[in-house]
Amino acid sequence: MTAEVLEQYRQKIQSELDKVVDFWLKHSHDKQYGGFFTCLGKDGKVYDDLKYVWLQGRQVWMYSRLYRTMERYRRPEILEAAKLGGAFLQKFARDETSSCPDKCAFCLTRDGRAVKVQRTIFSECFYVMAMDELSRITHDKEMQADAERMMDQLINWVRFDSSGLGRPKLPGDRPVNSMAVPMMLLCLVDQLTEGRTEVEKLTELSAWCVEQILQHIQRDGKAILENVTLDGKELPGCQGRLQNPGHALEAGWFLLRYAHAKGDAQLQTIAVEKFMDVPFNTGWDTQHGGLFYFLDVDGHCPTQLEWNMKLWWPHCEALIAYLMAYSYRKEPRLLDQFKQIYDYTFSHFSDEEHGEWFGYLSRQGDVVLDFKGGPFKGFFHVPRCLYMCEKLLDGLLEGQVSSS
Asked: Which structural domains are found in the chain, ordered by start?
């Protein structure tokens, strides 16, 4: 019976992934200037031609990963799109006005001129992912070296000298361990080391990232807080009380995959029981279903105006997290959790008429913003989720066949 259910999930997810890929192939490619349009309406119509560097990088990575690892996507148009997107990034992503040669812009005009720079590391992180994954299918050693050089710069910014980011040190601004930073670096280590002999500096970095992420377990293990002090203590005020269920779940599957590769059973348990079960149990809306975007650990109303909305990406991360946990541990309750998230996600976000997913729902589950792509939603969370879930289901079903 379980095999039959898993096969039903696989067929639905496979079909949904094909629709999502087709939507972006059809609507997002800029054939004049290169790169991708990411501000797409519900029917795929471009409503703004600004190009966001982190979304360009994500799309290059996603096309490249699909082409490299899934036979049905080994198609010329996907390879060509990845190459053209990578060329656009390499030519225009870096901010020429910055004193640091590797600082990337956040937003570009259609023809590649910088519009906005953020003093964070995330444009650069997705540049690394894009260049490394694309180099794996083009066998371009210089492109791989470009990714590794940018990774070195990221490590320096995060751990040693952040001055290149252009953020002035203000007297009232205390240093913070934001969970997004170590979990993103852990993701990059996984990317750069896949199938390669481990690099010592990256092995040490991954251990540091895990240590930093684990500091976010607070309140005697009953809460995962988004921001803590550098020594792992609670911060005062709204910043310190903030919970982001989607981020915690994403960190959970990052940790779980790392722990599984290392054979660390204790860390696997922490990943599931603390970074999945805690945010899921506290973040699930028992009245209307779905995961809240933000919560306050003490029950105050979060200051983020969208706190009670239901967004696409936390549900994507939850699907990956619980299906991965089930694939490793085979505990029925983990599959039950996956089913609960699956039923809500596919009945609320997926657009049967035009394809792709809506991203922003009200607490009650109604579509509030009907565009399919914007400054923060591109060709990444939805296809990555569907791709990973399909791969996990392949492994589960193959395991059942081989053991029968």
From this structure: 178-372 (1.50.10.10)
